[in-house]
Amino acid sequence: xxxxxxxxxxxxxxxxxxxxxxxxxxxxxxxxxxxxxxxxxxxxxxxxxxxxxxxxxxxxxxxxxxxxxxxxxxxxxxxxxxxxxxxxxxxxxxxxxxxxxxxxxxxxxxxxxxxxxxxxxxxxxxxxxxxxxxxxxxxxxxxxxxxxxxxxxxxxxxxxxxxxxxxxxxxxxxxxxxxxxxxxxxxxxxxxxxxxxxxxxxxxxxxxxxxxxxxxxxxxxxxxxxxxxxxxxxxxxxxxxxxxxxxxxxxxxxxxxxxxxxxxxxxxxxxxxxxxxxxxxxxxxxxxxxxxxxxxxxxxxxxxxxxxxxxxxxxxxxxxxxxxxxxxxxxxxxxxxxxxxxxxxxxxxxxxxxxxxxxxxxxxxxxxxxxxxxxxxxxxxxxxxxxxxxxxxxxxxxxxxxxxxxxxxxxxxxxxxxxxxxxxxxxxxxxxxxxxxxxxxxxxxxxxxxxxxxxxxxxxxxxxxxxxxxxxxxxxxxxxxxxxxxxxxxxxxxxxxxxxxxxxxxxxxxxxxxxxxxxxxxxxxxxxxxxxxxxxxxxxxxxxxxxxxxxxxxxxx
Length: 557
Ligand code: SRM
Ligand code: SF4
Prior knowledge:
single chain; 557 residues; alpha+beta; Sulfite Reductase Hemoprotein, domain 1; Sulfite Reductase Hemoprotein, domain 2; five-stranded antiparallel sheet; 18 helices; 22 strands; 32% helix; binds siroheme; binds iron/sulfur cluster
């Protein structure tokens, strides 16, 4: 897959995509190469569109180098589920795959997907096949295409939520790549001849300039962090009916340290649409990004930069031109929180929904906390479903009244019921994967945040704030996978054991936090945060959130 002369001065990835023959590349042959546990560079790029990343175990990197061994290559697989819903049978299949082929754990992500880590090349195809046998797929969970569409995961909370979920599933399905490559490579389907027009009418040969994310938010809950999405739809409800959506565009969290031309950006609301316009509007927005997104520099290729550089007015004008009509003005709505509501909730269908705290989304068995076993046991008797939240938690959904007690008993037996001793701080924490699998991590996140919260909790308890919901988010680098710039307290890894600390995001996700201190180690973090937490306990106004408090007190600008 040699890259031809770069006459257009576009990013080399553009040629890789174009020359991949609609996402085939040489993946199929490379999988059978027994000499190495890795794939050729070009194939690793195309593999992302199939939902997998080549990684290596960074914990053993130095040791392997010393022994003159290649890195311990392994693969991450991301499984899509629109709005994050899986049946008990699917849960059992994922549980089995994680033990059979992966590192034994399952990661519930910040975008309502499942991830496996630690899969060796020789097991990649079997894993993909097992996932497909469970009627799930990994296609387009990564890569320069639209990803799975997020949605509030509690559709039976109201008829509106149920309808919104159906739209999320429709959008997710509609924007899947049309190429047959996935089925040929992983599922041994017959090879087909392709032409550009037949194969990808929307994405064409070069697909999108960069990843693309859509989310549907249902006020008053912004649990999917709609302001972080490339394209967002905020449900507008009138008299208990979903009457349409306010459309938002241009959100994104990623940045690069030391490069001020990259930055997180909150999406702008650009107008109201009716439900029947949803797919068409989404398609036109994606087309604009396809046609105008930056294909020279991947660091500036997200729609947030297209909009920031050309202006929101330009974007709306271009969209309305393509639609052939003007958007209606935004309708009023109000978000109260971007967190989850834990515990049992009765749906309008008289079934029960239990939101379970899963620390940083990692499903595994630990001493006295056998979460993976508990959920397997629940899945064996459960007749409803499992729903992932955008905060890396899990809803055991659509539970029959008669099964409620048994499910509760299983959770208690395994020590995984929502622990009432968890502080509001821990219950509102997110950490990205980071080490040992993420190749971009400068510092720990998922493996470190829980122990940092242990220490912060002491301060929280000393100040009587254990019930206070304060969002705290950590990422191992500024890419923002744990949406760290939307935490009332945010940490971004700068180097091993050192973090930039950000304060003051809003509690509902509509304001970014601000850099407070740089390069702090744990002692520094605790020293800086203790007096602020104390003054919050003593001086906050009624119902004032931590994020608002640090602004009012001018702790940050
Ligand atoms: Fe992410 C890349 C993990 C949600 C922004 N993200 C990565 C990679 C694949 C690292 C890589 O490129 O080599 C990480 C794999 C780590 C691993 O070992 O699993 C990774 N991202 C994750 C997950 C698993 C974090 C988690 O702990 O839950 C989330 C999977 C979501 C999913 O199911 O699809 C995840 N990533 C996000 C989010 C949150 C969101 O979308 O709401 C963001 C910020 C929003 C945004 O897209 O701007 C996010 N990930 C990034 C970026 C920065 C993109 C940018 O525009 O600058 C990268 C790096 C990149 O794309 O070059 C990245
Ligand atoms: Fe990796 Fe950075 Fe994303 Fe964390 S934020 S998973 S360290 S890319």
